[in-house]
Amino acid sequence: MRTLILYSRPGCHLCEDLAAQLEPIVRGRATIEVVDVDSSVALERRYGLRIPVLCDGDLELTSYPLDADRVARHLASV
User: Fold this and answer.
1) Which of 9, 20, 30, 63 is a plausible cystine mate for 2, CB 3.0–4.6 Å?
2) Is 39 left (phi over 0), alpha (psi -120 to 50) or beta?
């Protein structure tokens, strides 16, 4: 099963909202690993205020608002 990375930070309501919206889309097709961008200077510089950002490896799939169609198409193609 694929693991998608959701770059986030604690207390981010947009991140929590995106994660909740993703759950039914990825169920059974992928897992979501939430990564705190504040845990790394490099991640903080890369994503900063752009969170939430959902990635599959180096490929950015969506940020907020969720592009559900793009995520679903991506999961169907892999």
Assistant:
1) 30
2) alpha
